[in-house]
């Protein structure tokens, strides 16, 4: 389960690798983020109304209402920031978005924690010529949050699809890891059929990934941008 990731990729690089025209970049002045937590805003690549790719900001996590078990009154909504690959076509929370609103989530690293009191944080990235090559997680998005009042009810939100952990991630998180897409599969994930998209839901090869940082209590805010 991924609850923290980083995207330090420059805006210009995102436009280039995700093939987004300048007029379809709606990020404003994006400076990169070393810590993206659930409910934070972050860049997402989706298909616009004209069928072209666009860069927009969305909050991380589909929101659902919650009530206090003690009082029965509404409390802060839950943010569902991970969607299991084996639930995408059966869960009412994910099904419509999987069929109609898939997206790319730009990233440069993600964190998993192992142990407790204190936990050890492990940051994972892909290999390449750059220190932290940019990549994309498989994502889903939706507009509006049913049952949520106030400004949050109008949020654009995204969620990250997870799959079985590969051999690099498994010692830290034994069961799950985010789906990282190969660049040649971006278009299939965005525009392909449900069957074609489902075939992309697999662990990223562990020989193309590495641990870039580990330590007790390390978050992306504690590490220089150049290290993530």
Automatic annotation (TrEMBL):
<keyword id="KW-0378">Hydrolase</keyword>
<dbReference type="InterPro" id="IPR003738">
    <property type="entry name" value="SRAP"/>
</dbReference>
<keyword id="KW-0645">Protease</keyword>
<comment type="similarity">
    <text>Belongs to the SOS response-associated peptidase family.</text>
</comment>
<protein>
    <recommendedName>
        <fullName>Abasic site processing protein</fullName>
        <ecNumber>3.4.-.-</ecNumber>
    </recommendedName>
</protein>
<dbReference type="Pfam" id="PF02586">
    <property type="entry name" value="SRAP"/>
</dbReference>
């Amino acid at each position: 389960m991924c609850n923290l990731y980083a995207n330090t990729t420059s805006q210009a690089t995102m436009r280039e690798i995700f093939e987004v025209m300048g007029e379809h970049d709606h990020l404003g002045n994006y400076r990169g983020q070393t810590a993206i937590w659930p409910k934070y805003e972050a860049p997402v690549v989706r298909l616009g109304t004209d069928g072209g790719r666009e860069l927009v900001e969305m909050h991380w996590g589909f929101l659902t209402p919650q009530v206090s078990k003690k009082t029965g009154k509404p409390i802060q909504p839950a943010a569902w920031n991970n969607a299991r690959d084996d639930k995408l076509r059966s869960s009412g929370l994910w099904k419509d978005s999987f069929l109609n609103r898939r997206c790319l989530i730009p990233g440069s690293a993600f964190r998993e924690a192992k142990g407790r009191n204190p936990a050890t944080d492990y940051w994972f990235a892909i290999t390449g010529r750059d220190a932290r090559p940019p990549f994309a997680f498989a994502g889903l998005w939706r507009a509006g949050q049913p049952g949520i009042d106030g400004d949050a009810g109008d949020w654009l939100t995204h969620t990250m699809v997870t799959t079985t952990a590969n051999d690099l991630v498994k010692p830290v998180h034994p069961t799950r890891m985010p789906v990282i897409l190969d660049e040649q599969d971006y278009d299939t994930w965005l525009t392909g059929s449900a069957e074609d998209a489902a075939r992309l839901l697999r662990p990223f090869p562990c020989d193309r990934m590495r641990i870039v940082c580990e330590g007790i209590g390390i978050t992306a805010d504690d590490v220089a941008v150049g290290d993530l």
